[in-house]
Amino acid sequence: MSLSILIIEDNQQNMYMLSYLLENKKYTVLKAYNGVDGLKLADENHPEIILLDIQLPDMDGYEICAKLRHNGLPKNTTIIAVTSYAMGGDREKAIEAGADGYIEKPINPDTFVSQMESIHNTK
């Protein structure tokens, strides 16, 4: 059985690339283009991994991450911030909000899945 991964990402190109890379590795992919839909899909499907953009139109990824952690999401769910926010303190802010890891954009298509798996496997 493949792991399910929820991608919460508002950029169509980023969503396509992440989905393509993950589906090629036989992951089941759920897609949300905003925080409200992401929270709903997480609640309904309990994915093993959530890839979360920080810059979203309706609420930022930090708020979404905190809500995911406090709204009944299974404790073993891995949340990874995938963002172009690469300023000092952004990684720490994501971790404080409840993320287990942080991957900077632009992602490297050759290493992204192994980076994600490494974060998930060390949780």
Automatic annotation (TrEMBL):
Residues the record lists as 4-aspartylphosphate modifications: D53
Residue ranges occupied by any Response regulatory domain in the UniProt entry: 4-120
Coiled-coil parts of chain: none
UniProt key word Phosphoprotein: yes
Entries under InterPro entries matching the protein: Bact_response_regulator, CheY-like_superfamily, Sig_transdc_resp-reg_receiver
Domain of life: Bacteria
Keyword list, A-Z: Phosphoprotein
PROSITE patterns, alphabetized: RESPONSE_REGULATORY (PS50110)
Name of this protein: Response regulator
Source organism of this protein record: Winogradskyella damuponensis
Taxonomic lineage of the native organism: Bacteria, Pseudomonadati, Bacteroidota, Flavobacteriia, Flavobacteriales
